[in-house]
C-alpha cells in the first residue's frame, strides 16, 4: 500500500452549532469585536467570511483537481461582470440557508437584516455584464472548468439619484465598508506595459526581428472570487485585475528625490482600474478605456500562460487546453497580444503563432447598432500599443491577400472587409479583427444572429459561412427564480419537485396546472405577496407608495432611445390626457402601476431628458387626486440587480418594446417570463423566441417587424405624418409640448418633442397606434383573472429554454467543446 501524500484540506461542520462557533470566531478574531458591540456591518462581514469558509474546501479541491486533470477550460474574457449580491447565492450553493438563519437567530440576529448590509458589486452596465455573471454561474453548476477574467473597478456603475426629477450621478464606492468575497493576491501580480516604440534587432542566428520597447508599465494584482456551482461541490474562479504602480517605477522616481512625482505616477497607474465606463452600447474611444482593455487581457493571458498552465506545457497544444471567449469587442486586443507573446517572447514563426491563435478565440457580438461597433483610431492605438498595431497590420495584410485570391475581381469587397477602416480616420475595426481571428462568431438571439449574417457582417458570413452561429442568451434560474422568487419556487417545487433548479426544462411539468383552478389561485397569491414585498421595498428605499391591487406594468432596462421608453411614456400621457379631458371615464381605466427603472449614460443628453420627462409625468399623475388608486408611476432611482430581484417577481406585464432589429436579445424579457409576467413586445431580439415558445395567445405582439422597418426607412420615414393623422398621438405630444409637465415652461421638454416630430430615429410614432391597441388587449385580458393567470402559468412552464444552463450547453456543443468534469 502506498501512502497518500496529498495534503488534506480542512472541512467545516455543517450544523447550526458549528456555524455559530465559526461565526463568533470570525466576529471576535476577524473583526475584533464582541457580539454586544458589533455593528451591523461587523456582523455582516463576519457572517460572509464564515459562509465563504464553507465553500473553501470545494474551491481548493476544484483547483487541485484541475491542476491534475488539465481539462480543457473556458476563459471568459469580459470587461464587465455585473455580479449582484453574493451572500444569498453562496448560501444557496452551500446549502446553508436554514443553518445560518437558525444560527443567527440563536444569537438574536435577523439574517434578513444582515443581507441588507451587502453592497452589490456593480461592475457592469447592463445586459452584457449580467450575462457574463449568469454564464459563469451556469458553468460552475454544470461542472465545466471556467475562469472568468475581468477588471476590479474601484468604482462600479454610478449610483443614480434624482434631483427635481433629473438624474444626478454619484460615485459607487462599493469597497468602502470592506469586501468579504474577494481574495487579493498581490504576490501573484503581473506586469503590463504600454507605450514606447518598436525596434529592429538581430537574434542569435542573425535573423532580423522586431520587438517592443515599452515606455511604461503597471502591475496587475489579481483578486479572486468564488463562483460556486449549485450544491455540486465545484467552485470555479473569477479573477479580476486591479492596477497598481510598479515598484521599480516608483523606486526610480523616489530615488531621484521626486516624491510628488512618484505619488502622481502611482495615481496614474491606479487610474486604469479606477472606474467602469458608464456608456452602454456607445463606445467613446477614450484612451483610458483602451488602457483598461489591454490591461486586463494582457494580465489574463500572462496569468494563464505563466501561472495556470504547468511549466512544461507545450503552447502548440493551447487550443486543446483553453478557449478564450471574447465578450463583445472589449477584450479583442487579446488577439494581437497572444500573437506578440508567441512571436516576440517565445520566438515562434508567424504562421505557427497565427495557427494557434486562430484556434484559441471565439467572439460574441452583442449589438446591431452601427455606432456601438468599436473602432480604435490607429494614432491612438499606435501610441499606446505600437507593437500590437504592427501585428494587426500584418494580420490584415495576410487576410486581404487571402481575400484577393478568393475575390480577384472584387476589390471593393476586399476593401469593405479590411480590418482597417480608412474613413473618417484610419482606425481598427475591432469586430472585424475578432471575426477574422475567432473560430466562431455568435449573435445572442436567433434574429440577431440572422441580422449579423445578413447585414452587419454579411461579407464575412459569405466568406466563412460556417464561422457564424447563434447562441440565444439565458439567465440563471438560481438567482432569478429560486432566490428572487421564494414563493413561486416553493409552489413550483411542491408541484413538480426541485429538479428544475438545474434542469429548467422540467418547468414543462407545470403546463397541466395552468388549467387547475386551485393552482392558479395559489399562483395569484404568490404574485400578490411579491407585490406586497416590492411595495415595502419601494416605501422604505424610495418613499414611493404603490397599490398591490393594481396591475404592475414594468419597464426596466438601460435608458436608450432604441429601447423606446418614450413609447411607453406616450401611452401613459395619452391615457392621462384622455382621462383629464373627460374623453375616458376614470372608472373605465384598468388600475395600473407603471414602474420604470433606468440609468442613462451621464453624457447621453437625450436619455437624461427622457428620465426628466418620466419623472415629470409621474409627478403630475401621482399628485392628481382624480387618478388615485387608478394610475400611478413609480420610478425608483438606481435600478440595479438587487432591485431587479424584488421588482421582477412582482410584475404582471413585461415591457419589451424596442424597435424591431435593434435589441440584440434582451435578458430582462426572460426573467419576467420565468416569474410569470406576460410580455407586450415587438418582434425583436429574443422576444421572437419567447413568443414562439409561449404561443401568440399568451403574448401581446405589436409593431413593425424588421423587414417592415427597413422598408419604411428606405421609403423615407416622416414622423410628422403620424402626428398629423393620429389625434390621440397629437394630443399626447401637444400636452408635453404645452408645458403641462414642466410648470408651464414649454422649453424644458421641447428637445424630446421636436426630436420625435422631426427625426424619431427609432420610429416610436410609427408604432404608437399599434402599441396602444395592444395595450387595450392587455386591459381586456387582465379583466379575466383566470385566463390571465393561465397565460402567466404557461409563461413559466414554457420558459425553461431561457436558462443560461441551456445557453452554456449550446456554447459547449457549437463553440467550446469543453466537456464537464464531474467532481472526484
Ligand atoms: C446587451 N448589450 C444588448 N452592452 O443590448 C442586449 N456596450 O440586447 C443583450 O441581451 C445583452 O447585451 C446580452 O447579450 C450591452 O449590454 C453593454 O453593456 C455595453 C457596455 C460597454 C460598451 C458597449
From TrEMBL:
SUPFAM superfamilies noted in UniProt: UDP-Glycosyltransferase/glycogen phosphorylase
CDD domains to which the protein is assigned, alphabetical: GT35_Glycogen_Phosphorylase
Any Pfam family matching the protein: Phosphorylase
Keywords from the named record: Carbohydrate metabolism, Glycosyltransferase, Pyridoxal phosphate, Transferase
EC number in record: 2.4.1.1
Catalysed conversion reaction: [(1->4)-alpha-D-glucosyl](n) + phosphate = [(1->4)-alpha-D-glucosyl](n-1) + alpha-D-glucose 1-phosphate
Cofactor(s) for this UniProt protein: pyridoxal 5'-phosphate
Family: Belongs to the glycogen phosphorylase family.
Purpose of the protein: Allosteric enzyme that catalyzes the rate-limiting step in glycogen catabolism, the phosphorolytic cleavage of glycogen to produce glucose-1-phosphate, and plays a central role in maintaining cellular and organismal glucose homeostasis.
Stored PANTHER family: GLYCOGEN PHOSPHORYLASE, GLYCOGEN PHOSPHORYLASE, LIVER FORM
Protein name: Alpha-1,4 glucan phosphorylase
Lineage per the UniProt record: Bacteria, Bacillati, Actinomycetota, Actinomycetes, Micrococcales
